[in-house]
Amino acid sequence: MTAPRARKLGRVRTLVVKVGTGLVTDPGLGAAPGRIEALAAGIAAVREGRRVVLVTSGAIATGMARLGLAERPRGIPDKQAAAAVGQSVLMWHYEAAFRRHGIAVGQVLLTAQDIGDRARYLNAKNTLAALLRFGVLPIVNENDTVAVEEIKVGDNDNLSALVASLLDADLLVLLTDVDGLYTDDPAVNARARKLDTVDEVTDDITRLARDRADGASVGGMATKLQAAKKAAAAGVPMIIASGREPGVLERLLAGAPVGTYFAPKADRLAARKRWIAFAVAPQGRLTVDAGARAALTQHGRSLLPSGVVDVEGDFASGEVVAVLERAGGREFARGVVNFDAAELRKIRGVKTRDIEARLGYRSFDEVIHRDNLVIL
Prior knowledge:
Elements: E1 14-19, H1 21-24, E2 25-26, E3 30-31, H2 33-46, E4 51-56, H3 59-67, H4 76-99, E5 105-110, H5 112-116, H6 118-133, E6 137-142, H7 156-166, E7 171-176, E8 197-198, H8 203-206, H9 221-233, E9 238-242, H10 248-253, E10 260-262, H11 271-279, E11 284-288, H12 290-299, E12 308-313, E13 320-325, E14 331-336, H13 341-347, H14 355-359, E15 373-375
Parallel strand pairs: 1-4, 1-7, 4-6, 5-6, 7-9, 8-10, 11-13
Antiparallel strand pairs: 2-3, 9-10, 11-12, 13-14, 14-15
Helix pairs in contact: 2-4, 3-4, 7-9
């Protein structure tokens, strides 16, 4: 936590803006045309000379209103039905609002499966780039009409960070109904103080998150801090700000101390390593000994079979796995494995020279090569 200071955003050529359900819908009424129009006007005001992508929530809440549902559906088919109805209504309002400013919009619906598969990830990147090249404003949402737990990103805060990473964005802005991250809930503690700048999302910062379930929205401050971690690792600064404040995008782009600013890491992860770290759900877990952990984290080495003490899951060669420390079981790295789970169970703990004796062949020396490993 630091005192207020001038923000050096640099030139923002690519901007990702995420809006929460509470900004674009009214409880029980669905889409809020007036606020959607204000959002469109705000984006139009800063779009000149910039590539802008909008990540929106609100489809399920809009569908709930159209279907006359008083409470958020619990079952997946009912949520998907609400999303299917609400998505078209929400996009109709966006189309109408942005048309007033001469801006064409295009809908992009994603699931975690689209992002987790490398080929589909690159295809999504190319599609977004093509829309931007044509001067279209992409409007991104999770594809709730087909997503089940296994292929859900889960919330649009994290989705927006993945989109910002995918596009190498210069800034990610999360517009919400609060004006930043506070030391406590300002609704109940008058002495709560808004943080101007967060240099790193530490455990102390994470403990400040206060989520309130309102029956319609999914995200909260906890997911926004998760998004900040992803954005920082990708070298993308992030700002949480109030979407109800007039001219908020213009002001924060001018460097005004609006909302809470999350600084990016100086050592920006390469694009492939960002995909490994954040876009893919690990398909298994490897527990390693203290020596292997030190070799990976302190010396930048590859993971060898001799350091692996346990193998969990059923994964194939080329898939992403989590790497856990033996003491405490905490995940500290992720990487792409060179062996499948059955092979690794046969060679765990052995020296590299003994791989062939265990397997009958020796295709690789390393379990995970350092170029395919990300320290978290």
